[in-house]
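Issue 218. Parser rejects a valid record. Input:
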Amino acid sequence: MRAVVVLLLVCLVGAMPVRAAEIEGVRFDDRVTVAGSPLVLVSTGLLRYRIVFRGYVAALYVAPGAAPESVFLADAPKRLEISYFWGIGGSDFAQATIDGIAKNFRPADVERLRARTERLNALYADVKPGDRYALTYLPGRGLELALNGVPRGAPVEGADFAAAIFAIWFGRVPFDEGLKRELLRLSS
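Output the parser choked on:
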């Protein structure tokens, strides 16, 4: 019985949102509201490039009470914010999006998502150090890309499309396994 209580407490603590966080000098709010939907910060992580260089820091937001590991592919509200330490070209984001989807989905799925991927890719702009992208998905509204808090165009529709985009970080073949583990609070 005691083991069951301890296990329940561990699960509850793991699902609780964290307070506003600062990682590598970058601050993330403890909650955001998008189109009237509240999302809470559940985790942050650091992507290291070639082990020693900081690439970017990221924060994952989900609906209050949601478990982060269960929402990244689900038709559920979520947000990934990424703050960059290096300048990156918009075309580099577009190519990384194409490659990330291709690593996680069958060719037929990639083809089915192609038009929406192209719409999102057209929204990417060059970023400089300190810039922040936010990818926010709300059911019925779609996936929105914002740069420094400013939407870059109309949301791209479809839970399937949002799942493909979030799979770049959280899928079977993520961009970085360590970052995935940090953001989903998975043990090594």
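Fixed in the parser; the record now loads. Helices lie at 2-15, 68-71, 90-104, 107-121, 159-170, 177-184.
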